[in-house]
């Protein structure tokens, strides 16, 4: 086999054109996000005084860190570009919230929709459409960044986390202000009470809803059937809307009893199923990458002894740590970059083996192979025998002699 990925269809777009298209996407999304941020800043400033806003912002930020850690833990083999992850957070926090707010206000004022209808129908449809649009745009303009279902879940999670953050600021600051016509607690007690419900018991609600759209987009990327590629994102979005509508609608059942029942019987099991699915998908990615890179090794794209150091997560950490210790920071960076390129090549080669290679697969594969070849002279492997395909090397042994 040549140094290119075999069997992929010819690339109709030059690499420079693809890079320009990706850069244009990032710039446009950043600009739209900035406009959404300005609109939401105005909304927040009009909704509450600075004191309640500070309290709401601090409380809303508390679940963000653990949620981000959970989703980045899933995204280990081929971490998504940080720029796109940040854009996803920003889209959810500002674009999705502002656009959904406009639709909901229009529904209440122009269409005279009652509050219950807005909560159970208008809000789920507008919010999930606004959140899911970012993942669909990625599928359209940056398809090469989504390798499967797990990537779709990660991007959907980023959007959902951003959306929940801004929405929580609105709700928590309003809870701090309290209802002037009631004797409710208000103040810090009211805000903390609502935070327990939204920030502790159900911080995963919005990421969970949007995950259905992400799963649909991931299935569309990996499927060989045109019907699945078209229908999967649509079905995923509809499921996201239905789950969101069921969650919101439960608030109006039985004076709150329906909410508790839905939470215990539906939401918690659904969240646990999503967690189990995410763990299973991550393990499946390891198996997938092993098979794909072993096939790449048989074709001469890399040495078979490299595969464990490129796939097994503990071995990847050992390889990076050893490269940094034995060869310095430059060697550590080279090993990290080599592992990321190998993972991307593995996912791309897997799609070739399945018969679902993208149109630009040949050009992308060639670029990855050449980039890996350029890094090989700087690699320092933990054990002897991890040779390159160009110039065999005898790397130093890891401390203790164990991989």
TrEMBL record:
GO molecular function, one term: peptidase activity
InterPro entries: PrsW (IPR026898)
Pfam families the UniProt entry points to: PrsW-protease (PF13367)
Record protein name field: Membrane protein
Keyword set includes Transferase: no
Source organism of the structure: Marmoricola endophyticus
Keywords assigned: Membrane, Transmembrane, Transmembrane helix
Transmembrane stretches, start-end: 23-47, 53-74, 83-105, 117-141, 153-176, 188-221, 228-247, 259-280
């Amino acid at each position: 086999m040549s140094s290119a990925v075999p069997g992929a269809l010819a690339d109709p777009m030059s690499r420079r054109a693809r890079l320009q298209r990706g850069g244009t996407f990032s710039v446009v999304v950043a600009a739209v996000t900035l406009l959404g941020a300005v609109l939401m800043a105005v909304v927040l400033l009009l909704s509450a005084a600075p004191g309640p806003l500070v309290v709401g912002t601090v409380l809303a930020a508390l679940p963000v860190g653990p949620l981000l850690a959970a989703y980045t833990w899933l995204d280990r083999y081929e971490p998504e570009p940080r720029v796109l992850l940040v854009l996803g957070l920003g889209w959810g926090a500002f674009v999705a919230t502002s656009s959904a707010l406009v639709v909901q206000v229009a529904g209440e004022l122009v269409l005279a929709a009652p509050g219950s209808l807005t909560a159970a129908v208008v809000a789920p449809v507008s919010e999930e459409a606004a959140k899911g649009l970012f993942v669909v745009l990625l599928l359209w303009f940056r398809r090469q960044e989504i390798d499967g279902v797990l990537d779709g879940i990660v991007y959907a999670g980023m959007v959902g986390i951003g959306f929940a953050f801004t929405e929580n600021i609105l709700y928590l600051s309003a809870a701090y202000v309290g209802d002037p016509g009631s004797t409710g607690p208000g103040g810090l007690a009211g805000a903390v009470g609502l935070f327990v419900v939204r920030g502790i018991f159900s911080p995963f609600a919005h990421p969970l809803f949007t995950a259905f759209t992400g799963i649909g987009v991931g299935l569309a990327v990996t499927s060989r059937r045109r019907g699945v590629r078209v229908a999967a994102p649509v079905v995923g979005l509809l499921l996201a809307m239905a789950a969101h509508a069921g969650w919101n609608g439960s608030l109006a059942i039985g004076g709150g009893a329906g909410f508790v029942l839905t939470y215990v019987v539906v939401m918690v099991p659904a969240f646990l199923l999503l967690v189990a699915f995410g763990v299973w998908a991550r393990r499946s990615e390891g198996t997938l990458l092993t098979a794909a890179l072993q096939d790449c090794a048989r074709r001469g794209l890399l040495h078979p002894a490299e595969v464990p150091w490129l796939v097994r997560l503990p071995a990847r950490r050992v390889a990076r740590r050893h490269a940094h210790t034995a060869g310095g920071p430059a060697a550590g960076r080279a090993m990290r970059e080599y592992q990321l390129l190998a993972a991307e090549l593995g996912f791309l080669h897997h799609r070739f083996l399945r018969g679902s290679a993208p149109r630009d697969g040949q050009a992308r594969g060639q670029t990855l192979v050449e980039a890996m070849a350029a890094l090989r002279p700087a690699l320092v492997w933990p054990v002897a025998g991890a040779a390159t395909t160009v110039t065999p090397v005898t790397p130093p042994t890891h401390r203790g002699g164990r991989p």
